[in-house]
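Late entry, evening session. Most of the bench is empty. Finally got around to the prediction I had been postponing all week. Sequence below, unchanged from the version circulated by S.P.
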Amino acid sequence: MVKIHTVGGFSEVGKNMVVVELEDDAFIFDEGFFLPAIVSMEERDKVMTEKRLRSISAIPNDSHINKIRQKVCAQFVGHAHLDHVGAVPFISDKYNAPIYATPFTTQVLQSILDDNNIVLKNKVHPIKPNTTFYVQGKQKKYKVDFINITHSTLQCLMIAIETPKGYILYGNDFKMDDTPVIGLKPNYKRLREIAKEGVLVFIADSLYSGSEKKDTLRKNCPRTVKRSFTYNSE
């Protein structure tokens, strides 16, 4: 059984959060801000708290995954943009699970923590791009790949979790840039390897794919629409 819970970022731009639920374990991917609400708050010189952020819908509404909260064994952050990492200081402590991100993303996270005088209870693990490591679940360990990809900030990732039914690949926000101004090129080699081993589900962003300004993209990918879904492999 594999379920994909689309907590945030599927009916709005930002506030990204996806939860992958397996038999005994669950993994969080991203916990981000809804930036228009954050800008409005800062203009009013308001202090950020979880309660205040929830009142203006600036962080993901994760209440509907309360029943599986104890299953969460890891929290992953795909890259350093605030719509992916900004909410980590305010909701990650609700889960008894370490946080994994690249060194650059962890530095951005630390800046947010410092600005708001917050200390996280969960350990933060900086993991270099193009690294394979293991995460301990309730009954087993999971192999996780941090695969370098390109975007408009440093050390962006596709994150792959190996399961008995195939890889779960998370790639929210990316582009294939073979000549990045700074940082590494996409790791095509590892992506090809994972494709050959078998991908069960690929979770990807399709922002603006339904826009009339994206005629070429829409004709080539007519069924690529950003929407909320739950995938059950049973």
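Two things to note before I forget:
The chain has one domain: 3-220.
The mean pLDDT is 88.
Will write this up properly tomorrow.
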